[in-house]
Amino acid sequence: MAMVGDGQTSYDKNTDGKDQELAGCSARGIxxxxxxxxxxxxxxxxxxxxxxxxxxxxxxxxxCFETGAIAxxxxxYLGFSAETGELSDNFDIISVETKNMYAxxxxxxxxxxxxxxxxxxxxxxxxxxxxxWGWFFVKIVLAGVVIGGGYVGWTMYKxxxxxxxxx
Length: 167
What we know:
Helix content is 25%, strand content 14%.
């Protein structure tokens, strides 16, 4: 079952959530299936939401539901539950994968567009959060030069004071 909550309304156990149900299906045979069960949830922004299940055979996806136009907020939470009203069951979720179905613009393409037209057509160039190992070693060497220079200067000063006639 798919449900869209408003963040305030609680799940109604007495009606198994029928008041909040967006779509759903009955998957007889999913419990104790001969193969690992998989679910594929596909959402096209503001267009559709589709759930397919794979539990009958390795290469067969069964459509559970598909909705029409639905708008999911930009900040959304995905939840999994085996609870239905008074009953509950135990399922192990081994992994959850999310993928962007749209190709993203490569940074080399953004740089090529910016140099050819004079304006960046892609996202603004992100600043690096910190230096790398090179800057670390440069700072260590500079600190060594400053400390070494200070020591040499102090030694020269002490030597000149020792050989001074007016001391």
